[in-house]
Each structure stands twice: as C-alpha cells, then as structure tokens.
Amino acid sequence: MRTFEFSAPETVDAAVAHGRAGATFLAGGTTLVDLMKLEVLTPQRVVDINALPLRGIRAEGTGIRIGALERMADVAAHPLVRRRFPVVSQALLDGASQQLRNMASIGGNLLQRTRCGYFRDPASACNRRVPGSGCPAIDGSNRMHAILGTSDSCVATHPSDLAVALVALDTWVTLRAADRERVIRLADLYRLPGDTPQALFTLEPGELITDVVIPGLPWAGNSAYLKIRDRQSYEFALASAAVALRTEHGVIKDARIAVGGMGTVPWRLPKVEDALRGKPSGRPAFEAAAERAAEGARTLADNTFKPTLLKRTIVRALLELEG
C-alpha cells in the first residue's frame, strides 16, 4: 500500500471540500482497503466519512429514504424495507456475508469496483485500471464476464446486487458537491464502458452520495430477487434478476425487470417489461417475454451459456414471485 493523506471531517461540507481530485471517500472500506493493498487504487488522500450525519431509514409517503452510510445489514432487516421493498432486502442478504453486511455502507455498495480478476491484478493489463493497456478478458478467462453493454475496451460485469434491485425500482440518489446538490436516477449514475471504461460513474470530482430514495410505486411490494451462483455461500452472480409485478384479476398491468451478472452496469430490461404488460400472469407469458432479454448480447468463448441462463433466471424469478 502506498502512502496517502488522511482526513476525517465531521460535516458534509467539509467532506466534499476534502474530496478534491485524487481523493477517495472511505465508508465501510470493504472494497477500498483491499484495492489499496493491491495497489490497484492509489488515492492521494483518503477521506473517512463515517462521522457524517448520513444515516437514517425513514418513510417518505409510500416510499423510503435511506442515508448513504446506513449499513447493509440494518437496511436488509428494517421492517419498512422488508414490507414495502422485499426485493431490496433479498438483494442485500444475497449480496455479501453477514460480516461484510455489518460493515459495508449502502453508498459504498453502489460505488464498488468490478471483481474482474484482470482489474484486480496489477501485473495484468486492464483498460479500467490503466487506460489503453488492453482488455485481456476478451480473449482470456471470461466465464463470469458481461454479455450486455460491453465494448472492445471492457467486458467486466457490474458487481452490486443491491444496484440491480434499486434500478428495477426506479430509485433516485442525492449527490452533494462543494457548490451544489443534485438528484439523479440511480441508473444514470453508471456509465457504459465504451472507449473510456476507466470512467465508471457520472460523479463529479468530490461529489458524495448522501441519500438513496426509493419511490413507493404500486408494484414495489410485490417484488423479489433471485441470484444464481456457483455456490450458495457468498459468491458473485452468474445471473440475477430483480422482478416486480402489478397484476389485476390475473392480468399483468405493470412490470419491472433488471438483471445482474450480465451487464457492465445494472441492466434494466424495458423490452421484457413491455412484453409482459397486458398478458395473463403465468409461465407462457413469462417465457415469451424472457425471449427478449438477451437481445443485443455479445458472448465470449467461455460464457456462451449466459443468454439461456439469463432467460431461465427471469422466468424462475417471476414464477417464484407469483407463488
């Protein structure tokens, strides 16, 4: 680990002032510290934000506001979250071990870096770590890599289970900088790799997530998260699906579908949602809609199974949701 400056401000204004170019915010540290030890990330300054007043889980109408420093375990167990947004609680429980859930923050989870082995190995080329150095995953070991939203520069999957669930729920995040506050859709926080895979987020220098706001839309309570992985114990997704349905008299009136383990960002599937609306709820409609899930997919040598797995994961998640 390289040397760095350290500060622990007690106000949001002081934190964003310290968060200049070359600085990194530290919350739970479950990803940052590991990457600093590997010298994958080498910030000039680490700004510890744990003293900031960015906690709280409270109702806002039928929705909910969650402070960015709330821990994953507390959010997963909160009665409001479990009752109004079960997909969020399930994604958090599936997203990490109990020990990590006790430490990791909601904001940090949404900003975690890819688990691509090439990114985490300083001896390997990686366009996300060293722009222009290449993406060895394209012709190398790529079973876990993305098939949606990829480019010739990067095929790494997005790692967060929580982000998939929140994107499905049309979640918003509040961002604070030194001179302003703005609110954006969580989906708009993430950048496709394109030719600049090192730019993961739309954050401006020093900008800090302060709150996560999940709107209380009618289908949110009827939602679920399904994660498919190589082993049941803590592991990243080969495929996952966050699904929510609103049905009336057996007919699907609205749907939200987002998937993980497949995209370079949390991947919403509006074409699948459109194909579900107006159809009788059940396996035939689910299977027909899921056929649209892998449109535009680009497979690699070791992950040609993923389009089929994606479709089956969506169908299974919808069937389990409908009981």
Structure notes:
It contains eleven helices and twelve strands. With 323 residues, it is an alpha+beta fold. Among the domains are: 1-48, Uridine Diphospho-n-acetylenolpyruvylglucosamine Reductase, domain 2 (2-Layer Sandwich), CATH 3.30.43.10; 223-322, CO dehydrogenase flavoprotein, C-terminal domain (Enolase-like, domain 1, 2-Layer Sandwich). The strands form three sheets. The chain has a five-stranded antiparallel beta sheet with strand order 4-5-8-6-7. Strands 9-10-11-12 form a four-stranded antiparallel beta sheet. Helix 5 packs antiparallel against helix 8, helix 9 (270-276) runs antiparallel to helix 10 and helix 10 packs antiparallel against helix 11. It is globular. The N and C termini lie far apart (50 Å). Keywords: Oxidoreductase.
Secondary-structure topology with pairs:
Elements: E1 5-7, H1 12-18, E2 23-26, H2 32-37, E3 45-48, E4 57-60, E5 63-67, H3 72-77, H4 79-84, H5 86-95, H6 98-103, H7 106-110, H8 161-168, E6 172-176, E7 181-185, E8 208-214, E9 223-228, E10 239-248, E11 251-260, E12 267-268, H9 270-276, H10 283-290, H11 306-322
Helix pairs in contact: 5-8, 9-10, 10-11
Q: Major sheet: order of its strands? A: 4-5-8-6-7
* CATH fold group of the domain at 223-322: Enolase-like, domain 1
Task: Report the order of strands and helices.
Answer: EHEHEEEHHHHHHEEEEEEEHHH
Total beta strand runs: 12
Q: Name the beta content range.
A: 15-25%
Any guess at the CATH architecture of the domain at 223-322?
2-Layer Sandwich
Corresponding CATH superfamily of the domain at 223-322: CO dehydrogenase flavoprotein, C-terminal domain
What is the top-level CATH class of the domain at 223-322? Alpha Beta
Unreliable residue stretches: none
* Class derived from helix and strand content: alpha+beta
Multimerization status: single chain
Indicate the radius of gyration in whole angstroms: 19 Å
Our measurement of the CA-to-CA distance between the termini, rounded to an integer number of angstroms, reads 50 Å
- Sheet with the most strands? 5 strands, antiparallel
Look at the structure and give the mean pLDDT. Answer: 95
Instruction: Note the total helix count.
Output: 11
Helix content: 25-40%
